[in-house]
Amino acid sequence: MSIHPILQSVTSKVQKRSELLRTGYLDRMERARKDGPKRAHLTCGNQAHAYAPMGDDQDRLIEGQTGNIGIITAYNDMLSAHQPFKEYPELIKDAARAVGGTAQVAAGVPAMCDGITQGQVGMELSLFSRDAIAMSAAIGLAHNVFDSTVYLGVCDKIVPGLVIAAATFGHLPAVFLPAGPMSTGLANDEKAKVRQDFAEGKVDRSALMASEMASYHGPGTCTFYGTANTNQMLMEFMGLHLPGSSFVNPSTPLRDALTQFGARQALAISDLGSQYSPVAQILDARAYINGIVGLMATGGSTNLLIHLLAMARASGIVLDWSDFAEISQVVPLLARVYPNGLADVNHFHAAGGLGLVISELLNAKLLHDDTQTIVGKGLNEYTKDPKLVDGELGWVTGVSESLNSKIIATTTTPFQASGGLSNLKGNLGSAVMKVSAVAEDRRIIKAPIRVFHDQKSVLDAFRAEEFKSDVIVVVRYQGPRSNGMPELHNLTPCLAVLQRRGIKVALVTDGRMSGASGKVPAAIHVVPEALDNGPIAYLRDGDIVTVDAVLGILAVEDDTIFERKIEHPDLSSNNIGLGRELFDMFRKNAGPAETGASVFNL
Fold first, then answer.
1. Is residue 213 part of a domain?
2. 503-560, pLDDT tens digit by residue?
3. How far apart are CA 301 and CA 430, in angstroms?
4. Range from 37-51, 415-429, 508-522, 558-572 that averages highest in pLDDT
5. What stretches of 72-215 show up as alpha helix (H) in DSSP?
6. Rounded distance, CA 432 to CA 300, Å?
7. Are residues 293 and 425 part of one domain?
8. Residues 595, 309 contacting (CB under 8 angstroms)
9. Residue 461 belongs to what domain range?
10. Closest C-alpha to 399, from 346, 341, 355
11. 368 closest CA partner among 465, 288, 307
């Protein structure tokens, strides 16, 4: 099947741009395949250490004739999305034994929750945790006794970190097994209203706490369409999940069956069999283009404009924000999931879910349909639904029409003709904006600015009633080299209140916003960042700035501001407290957001 000419053009540009890096990457993966995965190359002493705790599995490991799965788990019981992973290793081991294989937990990786650290000092480690996760996984896999891998992770930085690790060990197959979303609780729009009311002093903290607990109430991912659930979408579009598995709720028979099938599939596609499907073959330029298409079609998290760049480079693929902008122009918005609508991911899944969206996009020639996946060639399998019938797992033809047209649209009558993200450029640098939830009359603003260096100062100004007319709030020194590029999600309620009061407002920052950001226009990930003497470092209160998501403009009206002397604030307090001391090397070596904000020289 042919593909839309713009998508083919972008794919060709990515392939050409990546040619040198990709060739070197594939050469490394082929050498790694030849060197392993063969446990026989280890000494007897090496092997004895690896097999010592394995009990009845020792004989099969010694014989080396059946596959051994390395499990990388991000389990902890503080993250609702990761708590279900407690039971997964035993399910995986049992499934492996049933087909003559073995499985071992190779490593546990850190997993922090942005919901817990929002607005707190700990958020300054959040982005860097992605690269720390990749490094932690690499330590486990470096024991080199595995024929295949299974990755257990869901949330914001965890999946991108695990993908970077999987790509680095790209000669091995990798199956990503999710935990699924928690059941539906308090409606997300009701939760947002309580937050805004609290920001205005209309309700007290006990009402706010009751609202939050009713929303985040059990195991599984948060039900809004933020970064965690965007990650799950990407893993299906890019072929690393089992079809239809992303949004099956935790602790259900179908969820357990998918986990066990995933373990068996990880063995089936190892180099010991005839279906060898290593990560290096799956994560090519076409897979990443498919991922970007999915991001646009579903109005996903802006965080992926950083993570996809870093993930791709680990696979020998060089993406650019211009690729996202070009794809956005031809991919329609097909999903309305909070904050882009009232539905949550459970409602989305019930209405047809990712299978229906993929089917729509395939029919419109908006996806590469011939990519390699963990279940074979092509994305058609990903239009099917998993079902458990009489205890047997199978896949059936998915729905061909939306079961709720307010949640999932068609490519002929989409929610909007272009995707959910915009690339902004001008004399203030380059930035991105999520526009899928921003009203059309709010996508262009020209106004005086107020300059701040942290979230607290903005909130203090809001509480002091300092914002009385149209304003662009600039929050700088929030980039990766300044303080780890935290999300500025705490600003959303107060800026939304200003909008509700009839004030036109926008945010400009070299930091990030939450994956749940939406209704307030926010030009984020500004590069170069202020600490690198980026143009936003020259701005002062009262300068007139244009933020235009329609024409893609981020500019200050008066060019003479660049004759000013830059005076960087004292940022020494960013270096200490809650472990920030240990991440000084990360801050000093972090790349810009436009290449993934990574500490790796890939």
1. no
2. 999 999 999 987 666 689 999 999 999 999 999 999 999 999 999 999 999 999 999 9
3. 18
4. 558-572
5. 88-98, 114-117, 126-141, 158-168, 188-199, 205-215
6. 13
7. no
8. yes
9. 421-595
10. 355
11. 288
